[in-house]
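Work Package 4 report. The design task specified in the project plan requires that, given a folded chain encoded as structure tokens, an amino acid be chosen for each position. We show below one input record used in the internal validation round.
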């Protein structure tokens, strides 16, 4: 029996822009996505979000609000993976690439590129919640 894997995704928004990373590895190699990754054994989801944000963007994040849990078995072509998506606030650090990302960039919310996985849905859900819908 295959195991379900659990990941985190982090939405960092600032002044009408969202931080995205260009993936360096499959799936969706070369496509834009929210920063994120696997929760490690013994790690909380919140700590994983802090770690992944730092590893993939160079930024330190603080306060996190849960956007939602995304569990569609088809959301990731590698197999059934559930993600917990967080909206986080930047505390410090400087934006930089990592071995997992080809590029890191702030994008205007109204001009986002086509995104990997179900990240467009995650962003729409976060914006809907922000606007009180």
């Amino acid at each position: 029996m295959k195991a379900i894997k659990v990941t985190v995704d982090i939405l960092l928004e600032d002044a009408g822009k969202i931080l995205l990373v260009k993936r360096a590895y499959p799936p969706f190699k070369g496509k834009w996505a929210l920063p994120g990754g696997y929760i490690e054994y013994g790690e909380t989801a919140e700590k994983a979000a802090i770690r992944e944000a730092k590893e993939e963007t160079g930024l330190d994040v603080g306060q996190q609000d849960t956007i939602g849990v995304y569990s569609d078995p088809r959301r990731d072509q590698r197999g059934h993976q559930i993600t917990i998506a967080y909206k986080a606030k930047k505390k410090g650090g400087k934006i930089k690439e990592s071995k997992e990302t080809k590029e890191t960039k702030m994008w205007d919310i109204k001009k986002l590129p086509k995104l990997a996985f179900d990240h467009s849905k995650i962003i729409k859900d976060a914006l809907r919640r922000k606007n009180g819908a």
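The longest strand covers residues 81-93. Validation will be extended to a larger panel in the next phase.
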